[in-house]
Amino acid sequence: MTAVATPPASGSTAPSPLSAGPSTRRRRMGSIGFRIFTYAALLLIIVPAAWILLGVLFKAAAHWRWDVLWTKLTPAGGGLRDQILGTLILMVGVLIIAGSIGVLAGIHLSEMAPIRKNGKRSGGFLRTSSDVLAGFPSIVLGYVGYTAFVIGLHWGYSLPAALIILSIMVIPYIAKTTENSLRQVPTGYREGAEALGMTMGYSLRKVVLKSAAPGIVTGLLLAMAIACGETAPLIYTAGFANTLPHSLTHAQFPYLTYVVFTFYDQPSVQAHYLAYDAALILIVIVLLLLVLSRILVARTQRHAEGAKTKTRLPRPPRRPKGGDPASEGVDVAGIAARF
User: In this structure, are 54 and 175 located in the same domain?
Assistant: First the structure.
């Protein structure tokens, strides 16, 4: 028995399939509200950062002296020459130690880890361990370094203890950014290198790493910025000194963050000036790292997938006006073969 459709009663209209959706005004209000929330979130990021930067800049510029860059720190004041050099030494040391280990770990997780049956590479335990290590508070790592190196190995407050702890702290960030950057390289690059007969190591050096260089460099500079701004682990491992040491062990080390952290609470006005000067120098160092990362990324961006390549096709010979290609002796088949 078939059902018979009953026509709508007179005066009633059939419901439109679009009538259940939101009205145009409601959609417009929702779009405006969402845009307002995004602008508010952006302001919550920009306003505190600008407030801190401008506050440090104005307070440091009011009493800034250029000789603070090349004079030694003394009990009466002086400059921050050795503290600046000490911070740069820490950054370079972290770049060498943590950069080497972190980049190699990221390459192993992305390219060399065994492939499971589901087609994905293994290494979940290593990734989990790296994430857990990245979540440790820096002061906990500093206390571990104090127990293991300063007391356990009898190194005392020293540069090697500080470098090892800072490197352990930033290795997870470098490994994660390296792995993600390598995974974003198109598979066609690897397949093309393999089709050309390249070995895995050669294709990794010449093809894959060049495409992933922007992300890897960003991770390395992020690690240097973290090492530049840490205080808690250095207090436990490096101590603090007014001048650079002459030995690797049993010698405290100078750095800028201690000046910012400690000198601001001292009653001396000169100590307050040095604290603001140290904060300004740290901000300048971080900004220089950001600018350097942008420059390096721009220079290596040509190896990315979206790089524009120009391909020139051969231009056919110009045909005389009003002439017949066959009568003029033009090889039409040869011209077509060029394309």
Answer: no
Whether 285 contacts 87, CB under 8 Å = yes
d(CA 15, CA 254): 77
Distance, CA of 71 to CA of 85 (rounded, Å): 12
Residue 74 phi/psi, 5° resolution? -125, 165
- Distance of alpha carbon 53 from alpha carbon 227, whole angstroms: 19
**Non-local CB neighbours of 196 within 8 Å, separated by 6+ positions:** none
Measure the CA–CA gap between 168 and 175, rounded to whole angstroms: 11
Q: Are residues 186 and 56 in the same domain?
A: no
pLDDT digit string (tens) for 56-72?
899 888 888 898 899 88
Q: What's the CA angle centered on 41, arms 131 and 226, to 5 degrees?
A: 35
pLDDT digits (tens, 9 = 90+) for 186-219: 888 888 888 888 888 888 888 888 888 888 888 8
Domain count for the chain, please give it: 2
